[in-house]
Amino acid sequence: MKWKRTLCVGGMIAFLTISLVGCNSEASYSPQEIIDQALQETKELESYYGEYTMDIDETEGATVKEWMKDGKRRIEMSVDEDYVIAVNDGKQVITFSKKENKASIMTFENGELEELMGRSAKDNAQVLLNLVKDSHDIAIAGEEKIAGRDAYHITAKAQKKNTLLGDIEVWIDKKTWLTLKTITTNAGIVTQQQYTKLEVNKKIDDALFAYDIPEGATIEQIDTQDQTTPATMDEVKKQLGNFLILPEKDGLTLSTILDMKVEERPEFSFEYEKDEQPAFSVSVFKVVSNYETFGGNLANEEDIQVRGQKGTYMELGDRFVISWYENGYQYSILTENPDVTKEEILAYAKEMTIVQ
Questions:
Q1: Under DSSP, is residue 280 helix (H, G, I), strand (E, B) or coil?
Q2: For residues 268 and 285, is the Cβ–Cβ distance under 8 A?
Q3: pLDDT above 70 covers what percent of the chain?
Q4: Domain count along the chain
Q5: pLDDT in tens, 49-100
Q6: CB neighbours of residue 212 within 10 Å
């Protein structure tokens, strides 16, 4: 489902790549000016080598070494009695676990790797800022030294409890605008990432970004292509039977039906427009096992009632998802338009009827 992919992206940002960055400067900025600077075109660092730690709730986490040059990246991580190597050479990402003696290969086409995995610091800033600009209060908490470098300390406090990203703190290098330290707090769980060493514009051998998988290792090829395909209503009814659907009225129209190509079961997404503008999507699948029903919420989910059934509500930046289980089917409504409200979606859900 589209909202599941959003969750995945949000989780990675929160855990690995949360950053607020911008142009090189020694001047003092207000929080808004820092955001404005972060969104400007900048000349990114050509290369750097860094070492950092990642910890969750003060427990021993991972120690990481990182090399970056011209958008290519190599990471070596010690975590949970394993040593993991991940190399992005610009065309594919190879990840190797020494403990499992297993390699995973993801190959991308038409610049997709650069878009998904090789984002610059500024690009990562844009992703994060788009997620928190309307849901957090941003402020400068002062200036500190991290890894021996002068850094701005910036806080982003969530305005509501049930958001995908909770409270965030970042420490930004004043000269390079790299994020040197990040602390996120969500549902009482504290995640921290902090550089202990950073060498900027370091000379790095290109050979580091070419990884030879050890002989005898298990190799898994991971398909990175979007497998969704258009579907007709007749095809959906044949596979799902008597499910609920929204009526098209008052400017609401069904623009596309997508087969999500989920291996475990048939699952479809109905894309709706309101007055010819994207409004929201409704995904539906027939529950085939107990684990797929609601049994425990994610930390940032809120229990609500949907059509008289137990459901959940979760914010995803300027969007949100409402999910519930009814008569053997799982439904999820993900907003596409930030102007659509929770009350409107619940009202639309009440209008749903058995497909004819």
A1: strand
A2: yes
A3: 75
A4: 2
A5: 999 998 887 666 789 999 999 878 899 999 888 999 999 888 888 999 999 9
A6: 7
Per-residue pLDDT of 285-330, as tens digits, reads 998 764 444 444 555 678 999 999 999 998 877 789 999 999 999 9
Cα dihedral: 339, 344, 349, 350 (round 10) = -170
Confidence at residue 15, expressed as pLDDT on a 0 to 100 scale: 34
Cβ proximity of 301 and 312 under 8 Å: yes
Q: Is 80 helix (H, G, I), strand (E, B) or coil?
A: coil
The C-alpha angle with vertex 173 and arms to 168 and 175, in degrees rounded to 5, equals 150
pLDDT band at 8 (very low <50, low <70, confident <90, very high): very low
Check residue 299 and give its pLDDT.
Answer: 53
| Nearest residue to 324 via CA among 356, 269, 282 | 282
The confidence score (pLDDT) of residue 217 equals 95
pLDDT band at 226 (very low <50, low <70, confident <90, very high): low
- Structural domain boundaries enclosing 288: 229-354
CATH number at residue 255: 3.40.1000.20
**CB-CB contact of 257 with 271 (8 Å):** yes
Token pair recorded at residue 25: 């400067």
Residue 123: which H helix or E strand, with range?
Answer: helix 121-132
CA 314 from chain center: how many Å?
14
Beta bridge partners of 92: 107
Could you tell me the pTM of the whole model?
Answer: 0.64
Radius of gyration of the chain (CA): 23
Are 51 and 182 part of one and the same domain?
Answer: yes
- 175-186 burial by CB neighbour count: b if 16+ within 10 A, else e? ebbbbbbbbbbb
CA distance 131 to 334: 15
Same domain, 208 and 236: no
Phi-psi category of 181—alpha, beta or left, where left has phi over 0 and alpha has psi -120 to 50? Answer: beta
Residue type, 132: V
Cα separation, 320 vs 300, whole angstroms: 11
